[in-house]
Fold this sequence. Notes:
There is one protein chain. The chain is an alpha/beta fold. Helix content is 44%, strand content 11%. It folds into three domains: 27-118 and 257-286, Response regulator (Rossmann fold, 3-Layer(aba) Sandwich), CATH 3.40.50; 120-256 and 291-296, Rossmann fold; 304-406, Homeodomain-like (Arc Repressor Mutant, subunit A). The chain has helices at residues 37-53, 88-96, 120-132, 148-163, 178-181, 186-199, 211-223, 241-246, 258-273, 304-316, 323-329, 334-345, 349-367, 372-378, 384-395, 399-406; strands at residues 27-31, 57-59, 80-83, 101-103, 115-118, 139-142, 168-170, 204-208, 232-237, 252-255, 282-285, 289-291. The strands form three sheets. The protein has a six-stranded mixed beta sheet, sandwiched between helices. A four-stranded parallel beta sheet has the order 2-1-3-4, sandwiched between helices. It has a two-stranded parallel ribbon with strand order 5-11. α3 (120-132) packs parallel to α4 and α6 packs across α7 (211-223). The longest helix is centred in the last third of the chain and has 19 residues, at 349-367. Mean pLDDT is 85; it is low at 1-15, 174-181 and 412-426.
Amino acid sequence: MAKKKPSAKLPSKPRTRRRISRAGPPHVALIIETSTSFGRRLIRGVAQYARENGPWSVYLEQRSIYDPAPPWLRTWKGDGIIAKAAYPELAKIVVDTRIPTVDLNEQVLGLGLPVIYNDNEAIGQLAAEHLLDRSFENFGFLGHPGIYWSDHRRKGFETAVQLSGCECDVYSSKQRALRRYRHESWEIEMTNMTRWVKGLPKPVGVMAANDFCAVQVLDACRRASVSVPEHMAVIGVDNESVAGELASPPLSSVVPNAERMGYEAAALLDQLMQGQVTDHDHSLIPPVGVVTRQSTDIMAITDSDVAEAVGFIRRHACDGINSHDVVRESAVSRSVLQRRFRVLLGRSIHDVIMAVRMERTKQLLSHTDLSLQAISDRVGISHVEYLSTVFKKHTKQTVTEYRQAHRLKGQKKGRRESGETRITFP
């Protein structure tokens, strides 16, 4: 697990009680919202750990992000808490219980509790790479300024964009807090956002800090008569099912590894409840990948032959195609198409095919228990040995190292392959 010290020094950790001696399983409270896909995936990760290592007696109720603390929490005599406390009042109640707690919130910092966060800078970097690989040269970011997770996603996005020699236009919202945001005028905010969308140089790739922000951007594009993805490609974060239903066109999204966060939080809490001393204070969990949908399904290039060839590759790379198949679908000769690929993309036709296959391989390694031969078959590569060699060249990791680093610890075989929309990166 990747570990990184927080930028600000945390206060001394609050004194906590060890597990109460009682017959039966430990009593664990989950103060996590059930109203979002991300929250439910966190709970799913906790549940998997409890199934494998429990049982636990779990206290869980339906919650939204800003619901008040459960009335029983102040006097609860349980053994452990996993909390995603999104505002100071709830965070204080959780800390004051002095019950062993693992913190998952990314808004109220400095609680002195062991924390597990998304690697938000890596999320921003991955979104930038997704858009850079589509040859965008103009970029924008929209989020919630002053909120930890949003600011760090912006930082990762901006840094990656600037390292490529480009600049990023950041939307300056007047909203300074998410709870206040809900009470402000939607139409006033949309008017400002529409004005920002109109003023961006086109074509432009825009990252929204989460999928709900991205739905706003798509609405602003409609109001501004800016076509998506032809003039503006939009990517969000969370792969949120509700936002996905509202998004038009369907929204591309960076997928955080919420299940692993929940699993790791449960594993850490188990240690704390048993009175084990741990030096754990801050862990960052990298994202899984990008779910590519229509909102970024385009290459920001003026050469229609190259754009069509890349689209063909992205649709069929895992079907076993090669460079000859791509050329056969093109209206130009092999030499011309190869030259244009290298000039516009900096890669050969074969390189682009392999990049798509490697990202599909990453997804299958982290989300399934398929054998390497089965993965090789699914990504259009005949020989496992060749897949292993190419994968290490692309990622600097062996397939085993990558699977161990990106899957849930202790994950058992039998997990079915995800039916998610295809995941692509180039």
